[in-house]
C-alpha cells in the first residue's frame, strides 16, 4: 500500500515533538496493508538498537517491541522453560506468510489490539507486563491483560511508545495448554484460549482471547471442576464482550470458548493428576 499522505519519515532516535498525524513504524506490516489517510509522518523505530529478546538476570524474558515473530520463534525454540512450546504455538497462530513473519513485530501485534492477535494471547497468558515510554520520558508499566481494553482499543496515550514486554520467570515455568479455532483451515482465529498452571501454588489461569473483544483472564486458586470453569466463563465475559465479525458469530465464539475451557481444565487438572 502506497501511503501517499505521508510527507516525512523521521528516525526515532531524534527526539521531536509528537504531533497529530504521527505514527510509530516498527515492521510496517499493518501500516502498509491498508490506507492510512490520517498519517502524515512516520517515526521509524528500526534503528533504535534494542536487543530483540533476552533473559534477564532474574530469569524473566524481555521482548523488545521491535522483536519480530521470527526472532521470538527462534529464541524460544531452544529454550528449556516449561512454557516454551506455547511461544511457537502462538507464533503459528498468525494468519501470515513467511515474509510477514520476518517483518511483523511483537509490539505491533499488541498495539493493533485486534482480538485475534496471537502475541496478545501469548503475553497475556504468561502474565506479561508492558513497559510504556511517554514523550516526556516518563515510564509506566501495564499488564498486557489491561493494555488492550477493546477491539483495537489500547490504553496508550498520544505519542506513548511500547518499549518492551516482560514475561516473569515464574510464568515461563508454568505448564500450559493451547486451543485455537478458525472458521477456515488458514483463517483468522475465532477463539484462542490458553491455560497456565502455576509451578509453585498450582493456580490455574485461563486466558480467553480472539472470541472476546479484549483479553479476559480467569484465575482459580484451587483446582476447579467443570461447573466452576463454566460459571467463571459465564459470568466473567459480559454479553457485549463476545466479538462479532466475518470471522465468526458471537454465538459460535461463545460455544468454542466453553468447549476449549473445559478441554484445558481436563488437560491441566485431571490428566495431570493421574
Comma- or semicolon-separated keywords:
9 helices; 5-stranded antiparallel sheet
Helix content: 25-40%
Strand content: 25-35%
Overall radius of gyration:
19 Å
Strand order of the biggest β-sheet: 4-5-10-6-7
* Average of pLDDT: 93
Total beta-strand segments: 14
Q: What would the principal axes of the Cα set say about the shape? A: globular
Treating each run of at least 4 consecutive H or I residues as one helix, how many helices?
9
Main sheet?
5 strands, antiparallel
Structural class: alpha+beta
How far apart, in Å, are the first and last alpha carbons?
Answer: 54 Å
Protein name: FAD binding domain-containing protein
Pfam families: FAD_binding_5
Domain FAD-binding PCMH-type: 1-172
Question: What would you say this structure looks like, in words?
Answer:
- It contains nine helices and 14 strands.
- Helix 1 packs antiparallel against helix 2 (84-91) and helix 8 runs antiparallel to helix 9 (250-270).
- The strands form four sheets. Strands 4-5-10-6-7 form a five-stranded antiparallel β-sheet. A four-stranded antiparallel β-sheet has the order 11-12-13-14, sandwiched between helices.
- The protein has helices spanning 69-77, 84-91, 98-101, 106-112, 118-125, 144-147, 169-172, 226-236, 250-270; strands at 8-11, 22-25, 41-44, 53-55, 61-64, 129-133, 139-143, 148-150, 153-154, 161-167, 175-182, 189-197, 204-209, 216-220.
- The longest helix is centred in the C-terminal third of the chain and has 21 residues, at 250-270.
- By secondary structure, it is α+β, with helices and mostly antiparallel strands.
- InterPro entries: Diverse_Substr_Oxidored, FAD-bd_PCMH, FAD-bd_PCMH-like_sf, FAD-bd_PCMH_sub2, Mopterin_DH_FAD-bd.
- This is FAD binding domain-containing protein.
- Residues 1-172 form the FAD-binding PCMH-type domain.
Amino acid at each position: 500500500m502506497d501511503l501517499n499522505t505521508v510527507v516525512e519519515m523521521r528516525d526515532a532516535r531524534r527526539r521531536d515533538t509528537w504531533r497529530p498525524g504521527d505514527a510509530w513504524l516498527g515492521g510496517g506490516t499493518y501500516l502498509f496493508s491498508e490506507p492510512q489517510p490520517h498519517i502524515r509522518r512516520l517515526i521509524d523505530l528500526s534503528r533504535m538498537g534494542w536487543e530483540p529478546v533476552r533473559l534477564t538476570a532474574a530469569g524473566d524474558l524481555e521482548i523488545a517491541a521491535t522483536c519480530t515473530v521470527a526472532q521470538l520463534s527462534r529464541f524460544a525454540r531452544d529454550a528449556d522453560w516449561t512454557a516454551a512450546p506455547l511461544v511457537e504455538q502462538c507464533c503459528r497462530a498468525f494468519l501470515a506468510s513467511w515474509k510477514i513473519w520476518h517483518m511483523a513485530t511483537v509490539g505491533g501485534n499488541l498495539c493493533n489490539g485486534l482480538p485475534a492477535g496471537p502475541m496478545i494471547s501469548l503475553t497475556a497468558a504468561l502474565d506479561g507486563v508492558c513497559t510504556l515510554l511517554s514523550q516526556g520520558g516518563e515510564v509506566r508499566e501495564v499488564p498486557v491483560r489491561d493494555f488492550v481494553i477493546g477491539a483495537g482499543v489500547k490504553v496508550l496515550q498520544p505519542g506513548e511508545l511500547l518499549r518492551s514486554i516482560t514475561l516473569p520467570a515464574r510464568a515461563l515455568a508454568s505448564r500450559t495448554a493451547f486451543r485455537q479455532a478458525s472458521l477456515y483451515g488458514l483463517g483468522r482465529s475465532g477463539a484462542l484460549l490458553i491455560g497456565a498452571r502455576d509451578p509453585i501454588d498450582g493456580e490455574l489461569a485461563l486466558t480467553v482471547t480472539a472470541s472476546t473483544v479484549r483479553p479476559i483472564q480467569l484465575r482459580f486458586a484451587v483446582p476447579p471442576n467443570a461447573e466452576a470453569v463454566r460459571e467463571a466463563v459465564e459470568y466473567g465475559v459480559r454479553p457485549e464482550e463476545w466479538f462479532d465479525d466475518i470471522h465468526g458469530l458471537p454465538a459460535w465464539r461463545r460455544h468454542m470458548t466453553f468447549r476449549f475451557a473445559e478441554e484445558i481444565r481436563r488437560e491441566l487438572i485431571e490428566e495431570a493428576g493421574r
